Amino acid sequence: MVPFKLVNIGFGNVVPASRIVAVVAANSSPMRRFKEEARAGGKLVDASQGRKTRTVIITDSGHVILSAIQPETIAQRFASDEDGLPAGSAPLGEKKGRKRRSS
């Protein structure tokens, strides 16, 4: 079984990374219309916990997910390695850079 990556979208809510098509800012008029169309079609998931919606996440199934987290933050989480670390960072206890010579 191949494990799949989950992206934290805030407040303990996660979305499978493989299902995300787009992560966009929620403050434009087209996004507001898109949210209303999804609400009318029963495909809107509000994960903002009553806070101001900052991000609209569009999935391959046509669902629209609202989040209170900034789009840049979600994009960074989406781009992070499988172990949850930022892309290019070393796991805890391992240093990046040159290896020490043994004496």
UniProtKB/TrEMBL annotation:
Coiled-coil stretches noted in the UniProt entry, renumbered to this chain: none
Chain residue ranges for the region called Disordered: 79-103
Pfam families, per database record: RemA-like
Domain of life: Bacteria
Cross-referenced InterPro entries: RemA-like
Family the UniProt entry places it in: Belongs to the RemA family.
HAMAP family cross-referenced by the UniProt entry: RemA
Record's protein name: Putative regulatory protein MNODULE_20700
Organism: Candidatus Manganitrophus noduliformans
Upper taxonomic lineage: Bacteria, Pseudomonadati, Nitrospirota, Nitrospiria, Candidatus Troglogloeales
